[in-house]
Design a protein that fits this description.
- It is a single chain.
- By secondary structure, this protein is mainly α.
- The protein folds into two domains: about 1-50; about 55-180, no CATH class.
- Helices cover about 55% and strands about 5% of the residues.
- It is built from six helices and two strands; from the N terminus they run H-H-E-E-H-H-H-H.
- It has helices at about 25-50, 55-70, 115-120, 125-135, 140-150, 155-180; strands at about 90-95, 110-115.
- Helix 2 runs parallel beside helix 6 (about 155-180) and helix 4 (about 125-135) packs across helix 5 (about 140-150).
- The longest helix is centred in the first third of the chain and has 27 residues, at about 25-50.
């Protein structure tokens, strides 16, 4: 026996017509309303995306990128103080996003950092971050990072969308590898 397509009902029923998907006229009305709501939600999402500015897309990418960094550095100690903090880690930028926006999505510039102690209270704890960063990425990569810090960041919306897809895929791979 088929089940009623109305989300609130879901009761088994006997079909009168071969294309019948609901058990009663009341369920037919409710099911039609559900379909209209679903269609409207899709249309609304399309409209919202069309209204997004480049800055909105960058904010979305920042959230995804930060999640990638936290996933990549999961189970590792804080880059600054060296303590394990588990889920309270944040994506700490060596060169800040405000001063060097072109390095905000550079994985060599961003590492797992304890949120409350080093990132918030000590404003990044850069004195202890620097030696750990050089040890982690190497002197050559640090010099390359330093030389890139004054280059402009000019990403188009399609490029931002591509970076979002890339980091989402990397997150999936890392979660699968780490069993998260």
């Amino acid at each position: 026996m088929p089940k009623c397509k109305n989300a609130e009902c879901k009761k088994p029923f006997t079909r009168v017509r071969s294309n019948q998907v609901v058990c009663s006229p009341g369920c037919a009305y409710a099911y039609t309303k559900q379909l209209k709501t679903k269609d409207w939600n899709k249309e609304k999402a399309k409209r919202k995306k069309a209204l997004k500015t480049t800055q909105d897309h960058l904010k979305d990418l920042q959230l995804i990128f930060n999640r990638y960094i936290r996933t990549r550095d999961y189970g590792k100690p804080c880059i600054s103080c060296g303590k394990l903090h588990g889920i309270r880690m944040t994506a700490g930028h060596f060169y800040s996003v405000g001063s060097y926006p072109n390095l905000r999505f550079d994985p060599d510039n961003v590492h797992g950092q304890c949120w409350y102690n080093c990132n918030k209270n000590k404003r990044g704890n850069l004195g202890e971050y620097l030696p750990s960063l050089i040890a982690k990425i190497g002197k050559d990569n640090f010099n390359a990072l330093e030389s890139k810090r004054n280059e402009p960041l000019n990403l188009s919306i399609p490029e931002i969308d591509e970076l979002k897809r890339k980091y989402k895929e990397l997150i999936k791979q890392l979660e699968k590898e780490k069993g998260l």
